[in-house]
Amino acid sequence: MVERIQIPQHGFRGRIAVVILIFAAARGARRQIDADEPVIVSSTKRSEQLGRMAMRFALDGHMDSAAVVELRSAAGRRRKELRRAAASMRLGGGVNENRSSYIANQLLLSAATGQPLQPITAEHEAKLQRIHELQQGTIADVFARLVALQPALADVARTVQRATVTARH
């Protein structure tokens, strides 16, 4: 969900500042479209639809040229919408930690660029599987597994628990 920012507009200078801010944000979004981990992406209705379509293919296990052709067809002549949808998929960096997001991104990039699909390497598949297994269960279960991997996190847990108890009193 996007938070709306209220910017006070004081006369002509305030309006100019708002226009400059909007222009800078749009320019930054255009530059981020091909970044590995974009920070800002401007999406459109079409790019959102393409992103959902790619995610459906990924969730259904379709990482094939037929899915790429369908995405390309849905985008029509607007290949930039495919790139925009892929950038939205990469927003926040989780694309390398979630198998479906990774596949959806690959499908969108292949449809946008015409490059062949890159299969998931065995190493990356193993990483995705480890992350998936680590995330299963309650938050307490997940945190316990993280502590087993990184014992220093136990100190963080104790600090948070003490701060929570202190804040309640």
Give a verbal description of the structure:
The chain is built from 8 helices and no strands. The chain is mainly alpha-helical and about 170 residues long. It is flat and about 60 Å long.
Order of helices and strands: HHHHHHHH
Task: Using the alpha-carbon principal axes, give the shape.
Answer: flat
For the termini, the CA-CA separation is 33 Å
Give the integer mean of the pLDDT values: 81
What fraction of residues sit in β-strands? under 5%
Please tally the β strands and state the result.
Answer: 0
Query: Structural class, from helix and strand content?
Result: mainly alpha
Low-confidence stretches: none
Helical proportion?
A: 55-70%
The description of the largest β-sheet is: none
Set down the secondary structure blueprint:
Blueprint: H1 11-32, H2 45-59, H3 65-75, H4 79-90, H5 99-113, H6 122-134, H7 139-149, H8 153-168
Helix pairs in contact: 2-3, 2-4, 2-5, 3-5, 4-5
Q: Can you describe this structure in just a few lines?
A:
The chain contains 8 helices and no strands. With 169 residues, the protein is mostly helical.
What are the salient characteristics of this protein?
169 residues; mainly alpha; 68% helix
